[in-house]
């Protein structure tokens, strides 16, 4: 096939069809309940979004989850990389986020976020690098995330909905809105930014995303109950997200307290030495 533009001839070497979710039975995953998204009565059951713990940690590190930093007082954002599947038996579409790519050069304010051409290029270049390292997986940009900082609630504003409709309008494309200060987040999908449930799962083995024949379609996607080990893993995961993102400010404060404690110790030690010297003088008399 050939096309001519301004007298020049171009040949299409390879035409890649648009991405479509694959058919896979929804696997049974170990979910971290305390990290699940919030939701309200408008939430639908037709879509779900699973985020691997590793991807959630990437997001948490970028937005300063549970911290107040200079950066996260303004809106921040990035894109979600992963795969989307359909489960015809359960009549659901579910996404699996494997990685989050931060829009490091995006410019945000307390109520807006601007991603320039430079920001998009940086994120898409990082996407291609990840896909090149894992060519056998069908990794795609399946959505985006951004923050509502300070006291803002987690919802899709008119501007957010316009962005979703313009750039992520497919039924299988998702959006996350997170508030790092109150530790709340929600998931949405499609052109109308419809609300759906979001979950954080332990690292998902690739075998769990194999064709449907390898699953028991009747199994439920819930754990029978947490064991002692499960509880330990859950709290360890929460701890990793909460503690791993310690900021430079927090470290500086700890160092300051350490210096003050050392200074106080030196003063007390000198006072003890002086006291002992005075006592020795009196004893010699």
Sequence-ordered SSE layout with sheet pairings:
Blueprint: E1 2-5, E2 8-11, E3 22-23, E4 44-52, H1 53-63, E5 77-87, E6 92-102, E7 107-108, E8 113-114, H2 117-133, E9 140-147, H3 158-167, E10 174-179, E11 184-189, E12 194-201, H4 228-243, H5 248-284
Parallel strand pairs: 3-5, 4-6, 4-12, 9-10
Antiparallel strand pairs: 1-2, 5-6, 5-9, 7-8, 10-11, 11-12
Helix pairs in contact: 1-4
Strands side by side in the biggest sheet: 4-6-5-9-10-11-12
Strand percent estimate: 25-35%
Which stretches are low in confidence, meaning pLDDT under 50 for 5 or more residues running?
A: 212-249
Q: What structural class is derived from the secondary structure elements? A: alpha/beta
Distance between the termini: 112 Å
Number of domains: 2
Which series of helices and strands comes N to C?
EEEEHEEEEHEHEEEHH
Q: What multimeric state do the chains show?
A: single chain
Mean pLDDT: 83
Which CATH architecture of the largest domain is right? Answer: 3-Layer(aba) Sandwich
Report the strand count. 12
Work out the helix count: 5
Using only CA atoms, what is the Rg?
Answer: 26 Å
Question: How does this structure look, described?
Answer:
This protein is an alpha/beta fold and 285 residues long. The chain has 2 domains: 22-203, Cytidine Deaminase, domain 2, CATH 3.40.140.10; 251-284. The chain has 5 helices and 12 strands. The chain has helices at residues 53-63, 117-133, 158-167, 228-243, 248-284, and strands spanning 2-5, 8-11, 22-23, 44-52, 77-87, 92-102, 107-108, 113-114, 140-147, 174-179, 184-189, 194-201. The strands form 3 sheets. It has a 7-stranded mixed beta barrel. A two-stranded antiparallel ribbon has the order 1-2. The protein has a two-stranded antiparallel sheet with strand order 7-8. A hairpin with a 4-residue loop joins strand 11 (184-189) and strand 12. Helix 1 packs parallel to helix 4 (228-243). It is elongated, with a radius of gyration of 26 Å. The N and C termini lie far apart (112 Å). Mean pLDDT is 83; it is low at 212-249.
